[in-house]
Amino acid sequence: YSISIENGNAKWLDYERENTLQSINMKVRPGELIAVVGQVSAGKSSFLNVILKELRLQEGSIKVNGKIAYASQEPWLFAGSVRQNILFGRKMDQVRYDRVTKVCQLKTDFNLLPYGDKTIVGERGISLSGGQCARINLARAVYADADIYLMDDPLSAVDAHVGKHMFEECIDKYLRGKTRILVTHQLQYLRDVVRIIVLKDGAIQAEGTYDELGSMGVDFGRLLENQAKTDETSFRPASTIVSRSNSHTSISSLTMSTVMTNGTSKQEPLEMSQTDNGVVEDANSPLTRMQCINIYSGLIVSTIIITLIRSWTFFWTCMRASMRLHDRMFRSISRATMRFFNTNTSGRVLNRFSKDMGAVDEMLPAGFIDCLQIDIALLGIIILVATANV
């Protein structure tokens, strides 16, 4: 066997109670193409690290026969040319180099780069897209001409068309005869692999061909869903704004201004109807038409002023809550352990600070103010009905 693991248990830190991987039993024959699938944080990257012997087994044994090439999930490029990043200090073989860059879909990129594959990249070079970095990262591993290839989701950063060509021409055809273990979330490639290993909570939940797992009732779509549990939502979004604003005065002012705005806006139509119907012309009426007009004008001005105060208070509260939430996230990230960064990719962390924080800034305030206005309006209706029936 190229790879053999028996009763493997592993964890990153000795003092952890639970194992990162548990009861792993796997044997891979030379030339097999194995797909490893599972939810986020199921242990897929740790599984590859065990084979690389970067994660030591606490129990069990592992045997690896052959040279290993590894394509990491997060592409890494050093300061140098694209060619140097692919060769990685190895001797230049023009024929192999041309074939590798072709099957890794890099020829088009070379034509777009100012100096082709001699273009400097990295910290002091030009910036590349995530897909370009992923293709260079995979090309480096493929050029190594190893016996065993470990690929940690190399197709996720490229579009579907390029990914299809990379899988068919590189992973399936060019590397045929090599032992290949592919971690992937792309379900369309599972039919073309020899065997599929399904990981869940650090253990092998199922193993077999696509048809075998299908007959066993394995739902791949459900398995690959994000394992984040749907907690109770109830009032958590609103409570987030209230707690993170850290100012009960501003919340009280916002509530009072909303109540006053609703009250004055409801009073305006009543005053207008009285003026139009000529109620004030009645001799028994204590108000003249001009006085009603003045009251109506005062209500309009009051509504405008109170609305401006409410808007300013609302945006100030939301901005304060957003800043405090961002600062708390940043403090948590800066104090996180190395295991956190090993488990969560940089793209996932940045996504929380960009996309998710953007959603909090754009969607949560609108929902909060709508909820507050509706609640106050309902409260007013209840009070009106209660007093009218007395």
UniProtKB/TrEMBL annotation:
Entry keywords, A to Z: ATP-binding, Membrane, Nucleotide-binding, Transmembrane, Transmembrane helix, Transport
Residues annotated as domain ABC transmembrane type-1: 295-390
Localization terms from the record: Membrane
Cellular component, GO annotation: membrane
UniProt name for this protein: Multidrug resistance-associated protein lethal(2)03659
Keyword Transmembrane applies: yes
MF term (GO), any: ATP hydrolysis activity
Location of the ABC transporter domain: 3-226
Record-annotated membrane-spanning stretches: 295-319
Species this chain originates from: Trachymyrmex cornetzi
Entry-linked Gene3D superfamilies: ABC transporter type 1, transmembrane domain, P-loop containing nucleotide triphosphate hydrolases
